[in-house]
Design goal:
It is built from 14 helices and 5 strands. By secondary structure, it is of the alpha/beta class. Strand 2, helix 5 and strand 3 form a beta-alpha-beta unit. It binds zinc ion (ZN). Zinc ion binds next to helix 4.
Length: 281
């Protein structure tokens, strides 16, 4: 199943525009693909040299996207169980004390820590979390953080990714209304649908689903098959370039929602942008 990139990116939007990046983040939940995507996205935020991060075009982002950035380091695993051993943690601690090569921040990624790190290894790793070297970011991933030592958990920011199938009926209904509003010629319908997104979390969640429909529609427009009726309806009515425009506006809106803007104004703006793009000749 496709991962919902917009929904994942939205989770990290609080880190993209300011220096509020913590020293350590633990990404838990959803699928292993989703956690990997989240890890890569967060790494790019950390190394990007632009003011809106990640720009995905600067030298640092490009290298990160190609998987060859010298400041992004993944902890080695060994054996059948893919465990991270003490030596690997010692190497990592040594490396963390050295300044980044080309980016402002050095990134250390440790995958599946709930199964790959024994208690002894977690304790060894704890030392570096207690006094993290400057300009470092540790990204840990886990199916669930519940198996980690509380001493580790108290020193990391836990980010829980949503499972796509946990989207509530209310969210699905609101997302459906927005798609219908976009496809309808009645301005009132769309305005009514967008104005229902009154709170920030709801706004982001619903737009995450809308974005997923749009991405599926984009796939359909280039020949893929999908049985999602909303995606099919979008692909039938809108051109590929319009769908791309709608995806971009949706991402922008999710980022804006985190900037303390007035939600009524944001909903009205979004409605206007959706209309502008979908009704464009
Ligand atoms: Zn960049």
């Amino acid at each position: 199943m496709d991962i919902n990139k917009t929904q994942i990116e939205a989770v990290f939007s609080k880190y993209t525009e300011s220096d509020r990046m913590p020293h350590a983040v633990l990404i838990e939940g959803s699928t292993s693909d989703a956690r990997r995507y989240a890890t890569q996205y967060l790494s790019r935020i950390a190394v990007c040299s632009c003011s809106t991060r990640p720009c995905d075009t600067c030298k640092n982002c490009t290298k990160a996207l190609l998987g060859g950035h010298s400041d992004i380091y993944t902890a080695k695993t060994a054996g059948k169980t893919n465990s991270i051993n003490i030596e690997s943690i010692r190497d990592l601690i040594k490396d963390a004390s050295i300044k980044p090569n080309e980016a402002d921040t050095k990134v250390f990624i440790l995958h599946d820590v709930d199964t790959s790190m024994s208690e002894i290894v977690q304790n060894a790793f704890l030392k570096v979390l207690e006094e993290p070297p400057q300009r470092t970011l540790f990204i840990l991933t886990a199916k669930s953080s519940s198996r980690m030592l509380s001493t580790i958990l108290s020193r990391v920011q836990v980010i829980s990714l949503k499972n796509d199938d946990t989207v509530s009926e209310e969210t699905q209904e609101l997302a459906k209304n927005i798609v219908e509003g976009i496809l309808s010629l009645s301005e009132v319908k769309l305005l009514y649908a967008t104005n229902k997104l009154s709170t920030r979390p709801l706004f982001k969640e619903v737009l995450g689903v809308v974005s997923e429909y749009l991405r599926l529609a984009l796939n359909i427009s280039v020949g893929a098959k999908s049985d999602n009726e909303y995606a099919v309806a979008i692909a039938k009515k809108l051109t590929k370039s319009k769908i791309i425009g709608l995806i971009e506006i949706t991402s922008k809106a999710i980022i804006r929602a985190d900037r303390n803007v007035n939600m009524n104004l944001l909903c009205t703006w979004l409605c206007g942008e959706y209309r502008r793009i979908s009704w464009l000749r």
